[in-house]
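Module 6 notes. Inverse folding takes a fixed backbone as the condition and produces residue identities as the prediction. Think of it as a translation problem where the source language is geometry and the target language is the twenty amino acids. Below is one complete input and output pair. Work through it position by position during the lab.
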């Protein structure tokens, strides 16, 4: 046993210090990025905000809206081959730039993505997603996937430390997903005691990834547009959202009406709800590590997307970054003990 005493921070622990700016308007800020990848020969251009591959967020309907705005969706892994084929019959080639097919690490998962990609070879992105990216089995599955799909862009996670980011990149990942426990419906930290404050995880993992020519996604912990800005400021290349995109028309989950008010169900993918839905229940050797909540219905997701993008442009004007790419170079974090005046907060 050992104790690390250096400071680890989450989004609530910091704010971004403003700096002189020559920008006259938020409209002058470009949020698009262009990335070249470590293993795949392709590149990507778009706004690097992603819908999480949860079945109450990463839906086909969500992807259709986000792709029009050049945002990305990691499609959840529970769609069937037939559902994939029917959906992709009606999309343009450009649409494939903004979606990933997600997979677990079982043999049946590998076989399934093989069938979907064989039927739809224009799919460019594969997201290998497990709660614990530290297992040797996960690394071996990643190597197998890279060997089978040498030209695809492979996303792999989740991890929170630099040495594991490096291992995943060397094993074949182009992009590593960072985050253990910060999600709004994740209970891993209280069930297991394991986790890492998200801001510090981003800083450590981005440093490791960029040193090798790889990229990272900050996955979890954002509850406001300001948190997204902090994730980018800390060095994340992409930011993945779950709870912020839940509760919309395009989100999965049942629409529930209680006393005239509408809600949508939202749950973690390691929750009892998700496991009962997809694998018949919680196995006796494990615990549920997710919540099931009712999110007030928010209407169409485009309004939330525009609010997020507006906040991010505003961040850039406060620090003088004309492009999102410049934000991390223009970011100085200050430690704080409060974020906002909550006198009129319900």
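Target side of the pair, the amino acids:
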């Amino acid at each position: 046993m050992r104790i690390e005493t250096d400071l680890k921070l989450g989004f609530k622990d910091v704010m971004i210090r403003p700096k002189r700016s020559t920008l006259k308007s938020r409209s002058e800020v470009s949020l698009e990025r262009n990335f070249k990848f470590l293993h795949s020969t392709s590149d990507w251009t778009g706004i690097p905000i992603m819908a999480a591959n949860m079945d109450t967020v990463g839906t086909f309907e969500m992807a259709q809206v986000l792709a029009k705005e050049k945002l990305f969706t990691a499609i959840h892994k529970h769609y069937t081959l037939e559902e994939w084929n029917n959906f992709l019959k009606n999309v343009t080639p450009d649409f494939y730039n903004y979606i990933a097919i997600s997979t677990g690490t079982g043999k049946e998962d590998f076989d399934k993505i093989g069938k979907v990609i064989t039927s739809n070879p224009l799919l460019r992105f594969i997201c290998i997603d497990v709660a614990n990216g530290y297992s040797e089995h996960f690394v071996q599955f990643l190597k197998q996937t890279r060997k089978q799909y040498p030209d695809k862009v492979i996303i792999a996670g989740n991890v929170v430390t630099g040495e594991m980011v490096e291992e995943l990149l060397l094993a074949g990942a182009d992009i590593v997903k960072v985050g253990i426990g910060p999600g709004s419906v994740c209970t891993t930290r209280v069930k297991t005691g394991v986790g890492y404050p998200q801001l510090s995880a981003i800083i450590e993992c981005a440093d490791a990834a960029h040193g090798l020519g790889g990229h990272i996604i900050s996955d979890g912990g954002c509850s406001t547009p300001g948190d997204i800005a902090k994730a980018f400021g800390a060095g994340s290349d992409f930011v993945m959202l779950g709870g912020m995109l839940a509760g919309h028309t395009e989100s999965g989950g049942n629409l529930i009406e209680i006393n005239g008010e509408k809600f949508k169900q939202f749950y973690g993918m390691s929750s009892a709800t998700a496991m009962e839905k997809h694998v018949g229940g919680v196995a006796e050797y494990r615990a549920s590590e997710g919540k099931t909540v009712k999110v007030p219905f928010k209407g169409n997701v485009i309004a939330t997307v525009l609010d997020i993008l507006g906040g991010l442009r505003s961040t850039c004007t406060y620090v003088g970054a004309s492009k999102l790419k410049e934000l991390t170079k223009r970011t100085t974090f200050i430690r704080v003990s409060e974020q906002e005046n909550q006198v009129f907060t319900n």
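Reference fact for the lab report: The mean pLDDT is 93.
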